[in-house]
Amino acid sequence: MQVRPEQLSRELAKGLARCYLITGDEPLLQQECSDAVRQAARAHGCTEREIIDIGPKGEQWQTLLQSAGALSLFADKKLIEVRLPSGKPGAEGSKALQEYLQFESDDVLLIIAGKIDRQSQRAKWYTALDQGGVVVTLWPVRPAELPQWLHQRLAAAGLKADRDAVEMLAERVEGNLLAAAQEVEKLKLLANSDHVTVSTVLDAVAESARYNPFSLVDTTLGGDARAAVRSLRGLEAEGNAPPTVLWAVAREARLLLSLDEQCRRGVTLNQAMQQQGVWKNRMGLVQGAIKRHDSESLRHLQTMAFNTDAAVKGFHKEDPWDLLEELVVHMALGRQVRPSNALRRK
């Protein structure tokens, strides 16, 4: 069954399905929908949670089948969370998913996947998940749709906003939903009433910390590695959480790789940026970053972001801030990376 992100909570309130597939490249919506499923699973007695990370070569699919056939120590229900960044399970994964759905089990399967293309949506594994559970597809919010999205978000937070205030807020966040959600939360805390005006937004901007993840991203795209490192260290000093910073940087890394892939298929860079919803005032930064990279260096950025995410989640012993620093330096300098001692953490 296909549902929109805003419909998911209502479906969860009716009861749990056997499985959930959350697919798309929008980190904020993916995180919120995944959290909603996790919370509902806990409320329905899934006291255990097992995470299965599917690697680039399709590793770990057998773990899913082993988990389906294994009882936990206390025979409690569990949430099995499969992370599939590529959105393509391959032949082994397709077979494993179909086999899993044939098991009789009280466990709940949550699959968090990247964007799934139209061809994969016709595959047997996708059809089986659609028929046996709930599929939530996360579509990017286009620039023209952002004011309405913000209006709904503000209303959900109990705030009423003037049209000019919403348009100013949309211009400020430039299509980044994570930034938009943070701004709404900030307004909720700082507003003297439930009425948000242009003055309210300006006051909230004045209250902002000196550093923020999105100015870091722009500095990095601009190629100024030293300034990017200073900004990153400022974010750390101000007590920002590594996941928030990583979301902003990794999102831009995915954008650059996607643009590069489109250009290699014959699409012009300007067309690709328009299709990806890059705002006009950022096109110069993105264009400059693309020129400093090649396909290999952009794929390397994805690997670095994946390793940083693993460190954030505790799977690696490295300090996430150290890995974030390497990531922004490589993104800033591109294929001709020449790290110096001045850029390394003391």
In short:
The protein has 346 residues and is an alpha/beta fold.
Describe the structure.
- With 346 residues, the chain is α/β, with parallel strands linked by helices.
- It has three domains: 2-138, Rossmann fold, CATH 3.40.50.300; 143-206, Helicase, Ruva Protein, domain 3 (Orthogonal Bundle), CATH 1.10.8; 213-343, Up-down Bundle (Zinc Finger, Delta Prime, domain 3).
- Helix 13 runs antiparallel to helix 16.
- It contains 17 helices and eight strands.
- Strands 1-6-2-5-4-3 form a six-stranded parallel sheet, with helices on both faces. A two-stranded parallel sheet has the order 7-8.
- It is globular and about 55 Å long.
- Helices cover 57% and strands 11% of the residues.
Helix-strand blueprint:
Blueprint: E1 2-3, H1 8-14, E2 19-24, H2 27-43, E3 46-53, H3 61-68, E4 77-84, H4 90-102, E5 108-113, H5 118-121, H6 124-132, E6 134-138, H7 146-156, E7 160-161, H8 163-173, H9 177-190, E8 195-196, H10 198-206, H11 213-221, H12 225-237, H13 242-264, H14 269-275, H15 283-292, H16 295-312, H17 320-333
Parallel strand pairs: 1-6, 2-5, 2-6, 3-4, 4-5, 7-8
The coarse silhouette is globular
Query: How would you write the strand order of the largest sheet?
Result: 1-6-2-5-4-3
Q: So what's the oligomer here?
A: single chain
What is the CATH T-level topology of the largest domain? Answer: Rossmann fold
Q: Number of domains in the coordinates?
A: 3
Gyration radius (Cα, Å) is: 21 Å
Order of helices and strands: EHEHEHEHEHHEHEHHEHHHHHHHH
Which CATH architecture of the largest domain would you pick? 3-Layer(aba) Sandwich
Terminal Cα span: 52 Å
